Amino acid sequence: MRYSATHKQATRERIVRTAARHFRRHGEGGVVIADLMSKLKLTHGGFYKHFDSKEQLLAEAVAKAFEEIEGRFDERVSKAKPGTELRALIESYLSLEHCADPGGGCPMAALATEIGRLPRPVRAQIDEAIKRRVKRVSRFVPGVTDKQREQNTMALLSGLIGTVSVARALSDPKARKAVLEASKEFYIRTFCG
Predict the structure, then answer these.
(1) How many C-beta atoms lie closer than 10 Å to residue 20's C-beta?
(2) What predicted TM-score, i.e. pTM, was given to this entire model?
(3) Per-residue model confidence as pLDDT tens digits over 140-164
(4) DSSP strands (E only) in 56-182
(5) Which CATH architecture has domain 55-192?
(6) Sign of CA dihedral 142, 146, 152, 157
(7) Which of 64, 61, 60, 37 is nearest to 49 (CA)?
(8) Quick check: 83 and 140 in contact, CB under 8 A?
(9) Measured at the alpha carbon of residue 128, what is the angle toward residues 111 and 66, in degrees to the nearest 5?
């Protein structure tokens, strides 16, 4: 049976969206292509009609994950009152909801411990996404020069990503909440004055 180009593209996008969630939730090694395709009610062999390899899917899934989180970034910024955009981003990032949803959250927090071992093309996607995020967030971060704002942004983002990674590692919900709240207070005080 032949499918239209539109159907094939829609199927490919469905695979990438689902893989983006699975890679964030289970890590690169926790995703088996046969299981992923079965979940989508597609055949394992059908995977190779869309992708050359798991690495190609991973690169596209990571790009999709960053695209999704950037969409949420834009939404938060547009809803925030002028001058409170950074505070809104910090509060959203360090929320219990974000912490509880690695599959739908920031790919950096979800994959932080694995990124250094991922294939170079995937890491290149992540490098570009981080550069874009630094540029987007730095306009809200204090600093005298663009370079200083970007450096402050890198420090802030690293801290936010680390906080969520640590909070997710904790089994005690009270300890998880305490880490998120303490960090939220610190970053808001430090960066939002």
Answers:
(1) 26
(2) 0.87
(3) 999 999 999 999 999 999 999 999 9
(4) none
(5) Orthogonal Bundle (1.10)
(6) positive
(7) 37
(8) no
(9) 50
Q: Which two tokens stand for residue 135?
A: 């540029």
Long-range own/partner contacts, residues 82-91 (CB < 8 A, 24 or more apart)? 84/192, 85/140, 86/137, 86/140, 86/141, 86/191, 86/192, 87/188, 87/192, 89/137, 89/140, 90/156, 90/160, 90/184, 90/187, 90/188, 90/191, 90/192, 91/184, 91/188
18-65 pLDDT, tens digit each: 999 999 998 888 788 999 999 999 988 888 889 998 889 998 998 999
User: Cα(155)–Cα(33) distance, rounded to whole angstroms?
Assistant: 36
Handedness of CA 54, 56, 57, 62 (dihedral sign): positive
d(CA 1, CA 123): 37
How far is residue 73 from each of residues 76, 91, 128, measured CA to CA in Å?
Answer: 5, 12, 16
Tokens 């305490």 locate to: 178
C-alpha span between 4 and 71 (Å, rounded): 29
Q: Give the C-alpha distances (Å, rounded to integers) separating 140 from 133, 137, 148.
A: 12, 6, 12
> Exposed, middle or buried: residue 146 (CB in 10 Å: 0-12, 13-18, 19+)?
exposed
Chain Cα centroid distance, residue 176:
19
